[in-house]
Write a structure and sequence with these properties.
about 85% helix, mainly alpha
Length: about 90
């Protein structure tokens, strides 16, 4: 039963990632594209965790944690670039 729920969740999160990619490519302005990229990495984290649950492997959880940290740092860097023009002061 749990395997079916995980497979359905994988499908739903894949559809959300595809829609976020479309918003990233066709966003009307830069803040919308940045928000779509931020949401896309969150969807990628969810996909990796669901795949780790389905395959019963701990390696996927470490990869999701690494992706979360890199996504946060990337979002902060883009926000600093938009606010000040420089990332490193």
């Amino acid at each position: 039963m749990l395997e079916n729920v995980i497979l359905i969740s994988l499908g739903i999160m894949s559809a959300a990632a595809i829609l976020n990619t479309l918003r990233l490519l066709a966003g009307p302005d830069l803040p919308d594209r940045i928000l779509a990229l931020d949401t896309l990495y969150i969807n990628a984290i969810a996909l990796i965790i669901l795949l780790g649950l389905y395959l019963a492997s701990d390696l996927f959880f470490e990869a999701a944690l690494l992706l979360a940290v890199m996504g946060f740092v990337g979002t902060v860097a883009v926000a600093k670039h938009l606010m000040r023009g420089d990332i490193i002061e």
